[in-house]
Write a structure and sequence with these properties.
It is built from twelve helices and five strands. By secondary structure, the protein is of the alpha/beta class. It folds into two domains: 79 residues, Winged helix-like DNA-binding domain superfamily/Winged helix DNA-binding domain (Arc Repressor Mutant, subunit A); 165 residues, Rossmann fold, CATH 3.40.50. It comes from Bosea vaviloviae.
């Protein structure tokens, strides 16, 4: 029995399962990555169900226990091809078999699952600690390359709006890392990278660490190269049915960090936002809705 067989069997039996087993089945169907990667007790804790119920579901499918079910999901995860080109080939094959709708539904289901994971207690605690570190910093340097650049840019953009000292360590001509010459004790480097990790990002984090700055890392694994360098670690999930990793959870995490930092800064943040809005208005930065001209009577 492989993962596809498990999914098919659960689909056939779902409506006939007792209430508790149906809850476990729903968890298995909705959280394939967790089934493959988490221990049974960890899954039971997240699902709010008894571990024994997971075992009973596996036995209902003819397996000796839940570890055997987990092994089918882990095998499927290991068998997924590496590299963007290979995954794109897999995506095209899936499209030919299942069509647009199945891929779109799977994409949004994966994204919804990843966003939900950010609200779990451990993830929220990580976000709180990271926000406190960022809010208390003398200055924050934001660094992210390639697909991670928008996350770094977003944090820098919002820090500027709330009047918090911030530097986006990126620039034309490859001079972005030069900004880290000024980083030091009391400062924080906010750094973002997910697999495949960019070498320069890891080097930037190591440089900031050597210069005495604290590191807040946004990445996809506790075993990421950034994890060993980080004082605070924010973990996001990136796997999708597509060939390319998703950065949607990273943006959501940054938006949460921005909200927490703003709340921590209090009145100075409000004053800075009001000043920023006044300047934007003065330059007519945003298009205002035009009022219809009154016709002469």
């Amino acid at each position: 029995m492989d993962q596809k067989d498990v999914v098919a069997a659960l689909g056939l039996q779902f409506e006939r399962l007792p209430t508790q087993l149906r809850a476990v089945a729903r968890w298995v169907l909705d959280h394939p990555a967790d089934v493959a990667l988490l221990a049974t007790r960890g899954q039971a804790r997240r699902a709010g169900l008894a571990p024994a119920t997971f075992t009973r579901l596996a036995q209902r499918l003819g397996l000796p226990g839940y570890d055997a079910l987990r092994a089918t999901y882990a095998a499927s995860l290991r068998q997924r091809p590496d590299g963007f080109a290979n995954r794109a080939t897999e995506l095209l094959a899936r499209h030919g078999e299942d069509g647009d709708s199945a891929i779109a539904q799977d994409m949004f289901a994966a994204l919804a699952q990843h966003i939900r994971a950010l609200s779990e207690p451990d993830c929220v605690a990580r976000l709180e600690r990271a926000a406190a570190r960022l809010a208390d910093a003398r200055s924050v340097f934001c660094f992210g390359l390639r697909s991670a650049f928008p996350a770094a840019y977003m944090l820098d953009y919002i820090r500027a709006l709330i009047g918090a000292d911030s530097t986006l360590a990126d620039g034309a001509g490859g001079r972005g890392i030069d900004a880290l010459r000024r980083i030091g004790p009391g400062d924080v480097l906010f750094v973002a990278s997910v697999s495949p990790y960019t070498r320069l990002t890891i080097q930037a984090a190591a440089l900031a660490r050597d210069k005495g700055a604290a590191i807040v890392a946004l990445t996809d694994s506790a075993h990421s190269p950034l994890a060993a360098l980080a004082d605070e670690l924010v973990l996001v999930r990136t796997e999708t049915p597509s060939f390319f990793h998703t950065m949607t959870p990273a943006f959501a995490a940054v938006e949460c960090l921005a909200a927490l930092m703003t709340a921590r800064r209090g009145q100075p943040a409000l004053d800075a936002i009001a000043a920023a809005e006044a300047q934007l208005d003065a330059f007519s930065t945003f298009e205002s809705p035009r009022r219809p001209k009154r016709r002469p009577a």
